[in-house]
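Technical annex, item 7. During the second reporting period the consortium partners agreed on a shared format for inverse folding records so that results from different sites could be compared directly. Each record opens with the tokenized structure and is followed by the designed sequence. A conforming record, contributed by the partner at site C, is shown below for reference.
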């Protein structure tokens, strides 16, 4: 008999009832160190006092009106994002998946309005993840996401990750845009080299093609810059942001230049819940905190400490781990043991990590993680690895 909750998840046998900072309390009272933060969502940890205050104050005033009317909280967050980024305009959603849908629509509408409706194809990369909507799975490709869901939305082409030269060859008169994650998350914590991202921007410029960046997982301070592409000194035309921007409250946003968004006029897109007062109040509190230079400097410092300790863990357990990889507080361990076994062994040591492709275990902790918690995480992971060596 099918359960009341559709069984599409292989859930761990854990039920959490309370969170505080980097810690989650299980129903039986055990405290787990959360090195996954809800898959890069709880950027400021659990129950951050500034987020609790922002949400509580707004909840007592107004929850929802719809986008039939002006929403001051939405406009305040949009103004902040425009001030802090390349963007001229923002559209608010509830998730990264919805961001992918709009990014695809925006790129295609741009060329339609330019009198080139044949320019609908979007170039993506193998190993990518852009959500589980029809557009998202068609962009990423791969049997894991697409098998059984055909016919797929046409107009996407996947290239080999890291092969930037192939982009030149793939672009033709039908190309609308290139979409890429500056750091692949689900794909196994694979950062794109700064020089490759710069070259990709150059290729798009030389060919008049839009560049879409998916920073759903790697954005909002995760890499030590407000957004990961800043390390390469480039700017996209369209950018997808979600996860961390809501700090745990469902929120996503598509940021765009005025030129890229020029086709999106009244009636071309919409959302009932997107950008509601509750979500945008929390999102503004998150961005106000994360965008502070001293906050980002601390992320960079802590990321260096985490990498150093992860590399020490690899050296101490060479039969379990192969290498540490990643950037900022978006790190991974490529495993020799099966990554799911490592995650499960971590549960026994009361630490939460997240599996990814390429036999990688992901570390996406709250950006507020302390030095002592980093040390404690390594200690628990070492015990988990030892248990697999026996």
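Designed sequence (site C submission):
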């Amino acid at each position: 008999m099918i359960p009341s909750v559709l069984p599409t998840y292989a859930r761990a046998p854990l039920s959490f009832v309370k969170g505080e900072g980097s810690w989650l309390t299980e129903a039986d009272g055990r405290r787990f160190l959360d090195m996954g933060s809800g898959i890069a969502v709880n950027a400021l940890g659990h129950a951050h006092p500034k987020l609790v205050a922002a949400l509580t104050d707004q909840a007592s005033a107004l929850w929802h009106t719809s986008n039939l009317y002006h929403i001051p909280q939405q406009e305040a967050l949009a103004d902040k994002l425009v001030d802090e980024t390349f963007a001229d305009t923002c559209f608010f959603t509830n998730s990264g998946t919805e961001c992918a849908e709009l990014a695809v629509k925006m790129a295609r509408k741009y060329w339609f309005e330019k009198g080139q409706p044949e320019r609908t194809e979007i170039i993506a990369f193998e190993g990518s993840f852009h959500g589980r909507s029809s557009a998202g799975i068609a962009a990423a490709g791969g049997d894991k996401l697409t098998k059984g869901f055909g016919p797929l939305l046409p107009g996407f082409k996947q290239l080999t990750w890291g092969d930037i030269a192939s982009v030149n060859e793939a672009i033709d008169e039908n190309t609308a845009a290139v979409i890429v994650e500056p750091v692949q998350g689900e794909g196994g914590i694979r950062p794109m080299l700064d020089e490759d991202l710069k070259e990709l921007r150059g290729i798009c410029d030389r060919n008049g093609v839009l560049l879409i960046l998916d920073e759903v997982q790697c954005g909002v301070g995760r890499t030590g810059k407000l957004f990961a592409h800043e390390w390469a000194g480039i700017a996209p035309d369209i950018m997808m942001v979600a996860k961390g921007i809501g700090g745990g409250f469902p929120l996503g946003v598509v940021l765009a230049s005025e030129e890229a968004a020029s086709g999106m006029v009244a009636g071309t897109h919409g959302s009932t819940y997107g950008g509601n007062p509750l979500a945008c109040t929390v999102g503004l509190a998150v961005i106000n905190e994360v965008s502070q230079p001293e906050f980002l400097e601390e992320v960079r410092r802590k990321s260096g400490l985490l990498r150093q300790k992860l590399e020490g863990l690899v050296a101490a357990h060479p039969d379990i781990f192969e290498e540490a990889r990643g950037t900022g507080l978006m790190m991974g361990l490529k495993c020799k043991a099966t990554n799911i076994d490592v995650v499960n062994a971590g549960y026994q040591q009361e630490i939460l990590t997240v599996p990814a492709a390429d036999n990688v275990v992901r570390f996406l902790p709250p950006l507020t993680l302390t030095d002592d918690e980093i040390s404690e995480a390594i200690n628990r992971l070492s015990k988990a690895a030892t248990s697999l060596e026996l």
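The radius of gyration is 21 Å. The CA atoms of residues 163 and 262 lie 31 Å apart. All partners now use this format for quarterly exchanges.
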